[in-house]
Amino acid sequence: MRLLSKIKKNIPAGWMDFYHLGLGFLGNKIYGSPSKKLILIGITGTKGKTTVASLIWQILEKNNLKSALSSTVFLSTGGTKERNLTKMGMPGRFFLPRLLAQALKNQALYAVVETSSEGIMQHRQKFLDYDTVIFNNLSPEHIERHGGFKEYRREKEKLFKQCTKNHVLNLGDPSVHHFLRYPAQSKWGVILESEEAPKKYSRKITQEEVNHLVEGKVTAEGNFLIKEWLVMGEFQKKLIFEHEHRPVFEGRFNLLNLLLAYAGLRSLDLPPEKIVEFFRRLKLPPGRIQEIKSKKIDFRIFLDYAHEPLSLKSVLEYGREILPPKKKLICLLGGQGGGRDRWKRGAMGELAGRLCDKVIVSLEDPYDEDPEQINQEILKGVLKNPDFQLNKNAWSFVDRHKALKKALKIARPGYVVILCGKGGEKKMCVGDQTIAWDEEKEVKQIIQFL
Description:
The protein is an alpha/beta fold. It folds into two domains: 2-281, Mur-like, catalytic domain (UDP-N-acetylmuramoyl-L-alanine:D-glutamate ligase, 3-Layer(aba) Sandwich), CATH 3.40.1190; 290-447, Mur ligase, C-terminal domain (Protein-Tyrosine Phosphatase, Chain A, Alpha-Beta Complex). It is built from 16 helices and 19 strands. It has an eleven-stranded mixed sheet with strand order 4-3-2-5-1-6-7-8-9-10-11, sandwiched between helices. Strands 12-13-17-14-15-16 form a six-stranded mixed sheet, sandwiched between helices.
């Protein structure tokens, strides 16, 4: 791997595409193209990839269908899982084909792979044989890296052009029509019943666009209701399956993730009863709206990985949904460094200033940027709300541990505290160093001294 790094440094910029393409080809050749012998499911989108991948993997394993998993949080070669410490949603070089080859040796039948725009840009998906690909959603992220939102979207589209077997699509996303245009043997559309979706795809579903439709809603009792329809022709649907259950986790955005996981498994002919049987036993990945409970506190604390506007909006709206009357919502957020999506810092700050009552800003992964400068860019957005004043209901800390202490110390009975940006990660990138960081552990230590 050191040799590859040396080679990479000496390759002209114009040749980097061939370098990544060559690595993808070699990796799969060396390990015997393992994806061709597995049933491969790929998930792409801006947010929710890790959750959908985890839900699918759990259901497969609970059905005694040994499966590999490659996600931002966990890796598995079948049966057991371990933390992904690479800080990459779709690890590069020979990592992925090696993981899939080991899964085959372990007699795995399926593989679930987060497929990121960066991975696609570097051809990590190019020589993988996908059976089902899932589109979750799309919002601006990694714009500097890709050169624009259209270019970012086109990288995602390549996955649907490549896979011609099964497509699963979130019909409620405004960009879905870009993904619907690619041919596939079967197409599954997923929609939340009350979602404000593009009119063409919310109710007027045609057989040419999708073969199956999976609808869901949250009932007044807080249950998740799922219906599967067979699309017989324009405006004609035949109900195949209906199921209602009380989930372990909450939130409309998590219902959407569950619907996508359900549709992904149904596209591979897993019977609906074999999927929903385990719904009540599914767990969200660490750091995905993960609640930290303690008898020492009388307010609620959640960790979430939200590090871009769409995911931040979803988690803060959930915070407001569960907030008791006359109580306050506290948010801690940060911004990545290294030139990553600088535009979103102000946008995230503005969101927090609009949806929260108190906001703390602190570092996330500053890399080689000045953490204080990153904080100021976020605070500029927060302070657009005239009700916010620095050191009154908005604070900035370079030290994230101090920021956590502030967020928990100002919480009162009934408050909701949402800590964003790190989630279940175990590392933080500061300058040229990678330091250990465990948000859950830090929070639990602070609680002991409240």
